[in-house]
DNA sequence: CTACATTGTTAGATCAGTCTAACAAAATTG
DNA sequence: CAATTTTGTTAGACTGATCTAACAATGTAG
């Protein structure tokens, strides 16, 4: 059974392996906030336990077992976040830190019960998909708000970044998942976008914000 | 901040320090299921951190800070057990193992929210008192069933042992906290007791069971 | 292609938490 | 009280997870 540390490495590896599938030692070190020698020794351990493939001087790759176990940790994390928001009344900006700890609890029934109580949700409070019990993850293809055209009506469905600061910024603007946005105009110079939604008739969103907002065209 | 290991030692120390207040190294070693040298080195650490007082060859004593922090871990444990039973539908025999892990989560709001959602309970699912936010524990003085007399009507209010096996035994007899028992007779030879309750007209409980049942005389 | 920068590895140390073996102090018991 | 048992300590080792310093391989850019 994976230790807390190993579970955290698996999660990072899984998240870094989007698209490229391979992960460099240095990437992993910076993601995990540890030194490269630390990663070097840990990848040897993870390999010994069958979670990844490693060859000297080569980037590492998760094995199918590694991918599955990583997804199951992510499942615990996201179920927890959803439970904290839906059943315990936390704000979406408060739950990540708690889930970072709760995800390491070894008690399948605990998470199954959360799942059940929430009616088997498929996304977490930040719009990210919750892997199923077998570690399968449903890929959702949302558009970034930057890719949308003036005049379009879109619905906020996900985020590419869920830092507390960004979530608090969105709270301050009354933006939450499900909010329908009308794109009023796009500024060619700085790529900012003017939108209207709810009782906000004209809100300007910078490119930095827009690229982090994932939307579904209505 | 206490590590998981330290928190577990504090809890054990607190529980062993009932009455006597002092705890022997060997008691603590057997409680924690580690060797005496391990305890020896750990008590030095705990002393260095201000949680206990230790002198070579003497039993150890928790400091006020040690008692408080121990009680706060026990608070997290018992709030969790109550939450699992009351809000998540677990049986009282399933919750201890999960709480043993959840008690180490460092997130005050998480436990405060549980507390709030349950209406600030004062006992856990096994009848043990839940320490308050300042680590104060309300001592309740129940009677053991062995101390009761024939003819008395008593209510099951607590247990001196909450092992899964014992809880499953009680489940099998339909005995739960709050059950009112009429003591029909006491057997002088083996100290077993015959009781009636709910739709059980005559159930014999061995001394081994009776001494673990804490009751309130009605 | 050589030089320099980047990336990765090795060696060796540290800290927490654990162990066993050997020994020492304290308690018990005849 | 002396012998024996029980309890506690010391020494030394190990594992997991981390670090820094030194070095080696790989990649890049003139
Ligand atoms: Mn998260
Ligand atoms: Mn984590
Ligand atoms: Mn318990
Ligand atoms: Mn515990």
TrEMBL record, chains A, B:
Gene Ontology molecular function: DNA binding; DNA-binding transcription factor activity; protein dimerization activity; transition metal ion binding
Subunit record text: Homodimer.
Organism: Algoriphagus aquimarinus
All residue ranges annotated as the HTH dtxR-type domain in the record: 1-63
Protein name: Transcriptional regulator MntR
Family indicated by similarity: Belongs to the DtxR/MntR family.
PROSITE patterns hit by this protein: HTH_DTXR (PS50944)
Lineage of producing organism: Bacteria, Pseudomonadati, Bacteroidota, Cytophagia, Cytophagales
Gene3D superfamilies reported for this sequence: 2.30.30.90, Iron dependent repressor, metal binding and dimerisation domain, Winged helix-like DNA-binding domain superfamily/Winged helix DNA-binding domain
InterPro entries (alphabetical): DtxR_MntR_Metal-Reg, Fe-transptr_FeoA-like, Fe_dep_repressor, Fe_dep_repressor_sf, FeoA_core_dom, HTH_DTXR, Iron_dep_repressor, WH-like_DNA-bd_sf
The protein's role, per its UniProt record: In the presence of manganese, represses expression of mntH and mntS. Up-regulates expression of mntP.
Cellular compartment(s): Cytoplasm
Record GO cellular component, one term: cytoplasm
Keywords: Activator, Cytoplasm, DNA-binding, Manganese, Repressor, Transcription, Transcription regulation
Pfam families, per database record: Fe_dep_repr_C, Fe_dep_repress, FeoA
Coiled coil: none
Highest taxon of the lineage: Bacteria
